[in-house]
Structure formats: structure tokens, C-alpha cells
Amino acid sequence: MDIQYIIELLPLFFQKLPFVIKIIGVSFIFSFIGAILVTVIRIKKIPLVSKILDLYVSFIRSLPNILILFLVYYGLPVLLNKIHLLGDNLTQDRVYYGILSIVLYNIGYTSEILRAGIQSLPADQEELADSLGYNYLQKLILVILPQTVVISIKDIENYI
After folding, report:
1. Does position 108 have pLDDT exceeding 80, yes or no?
2. Residue 110: which of 43, 48, 57 has the closest Cα?
3. What is the DSSP code string of the chain?
């Protein structure tokens, strides 16, 4: 191991670190929002959409992250160019494709963690929210999600 080479690269590493932290933060925020939506739809069992999202989660969880990165980073610009949604310039800020691949991958795993957290809640929590007259959205925001995040935070931290 060449220590001198590592020492030479440290300034470059620290120079790029804020950019990487921004990518991680943006990816986490979009992944968490997407995972909440996917989890709620899967638990509500909306007929066709729920089955499609079940397939999505199973498919994403069975693929390595690097494969999704390659498919989105290299394949999506070509596909968008073929259907004329992207200009001739295929190098349009590829950072967004990287973020998209991370988000798509994390949604699959995080939604599964949140689903397990919601299903671990006692049924009387929902009954309590019903007795207070909450609609489903209020019940989700005020009762279910806060408790689910507390239950699932360790698994989410381990995953990140």
C-alpha cells in the first residue's frame, strides 16, 4: 500500500466530500418520500398498483446496486434519446442519473423496512385514531408514520 499516494489524494478527497454528502442527502430525502408512498400503496392494497409495486420491490431487491447504476446511468439517456425526450447531447448532467439510480434502489429496501414497521404496530393504534375521527391521511401522518419511524430507524440507519 502506497501511503504517499494516499496522502497526495487526501486534499482531492476532502474537496469532493461536500458534493458527495449533498448527493447522499438528496438521495435519502427522495428515497424516503418514495418509500413512504410505495409502502402506503402496498399496505392499502390498491388492486393493480399494489401488485406492480410488489413486483418493483422484489425486482429491485434482487438486483445489485451497481447493475441499477449502470442501467440508469448508461441506458436511460439512450432510451430517452430514442423516444426523443432528450436532446442530442447525452451528457446532460449525469449526476441526476446517478441520484436516480440510488433513489430507485433505496426505495425498494426502505419501503420494505417501513412496511415491516407499520405491520408491527398494534392494531389498537389505528382503532385509537379512528375513535378520534381521523381520516386516513391524518391517521397516517399523526399516528402511524411517527411510530413506524421510531420502530424502523435502526434498520434504516443500518441500511444507509
Report:
1. yes
2. 57
3. --HHHHHHHHHHHHHHHHHHHHHHHHHHHHHHHHHHHHHHHHHHT-HHHHHHHHHHHHHHHHS-HHHHHHIIIIIHHHHHHHTTSS-S-TTS-THHHHHHHHHHHHHHHHHHHHHHHHHTS-HHHHHHHHHTT--HHHHIIIIIHHHHHHHHHHHHHHH-
38 pLDDT higher than 90: yes
CA distance linking residue 36 with residue 31, whole number of Å? 9
pLDDT > 80? residue 160:
no
Report residue 66 as a C-alpha cell. Answer: 451497481
- In a 13 Å sphere around the CA of 24, the CA atoms on its Cβ side amount to 8
Q: Is the pTM of this model over 0.70?
A: yes
Contact 38, 107 (CB under 8 A): yes
List pLDDT tens digits, range 134-146: 998 899 888 888 9
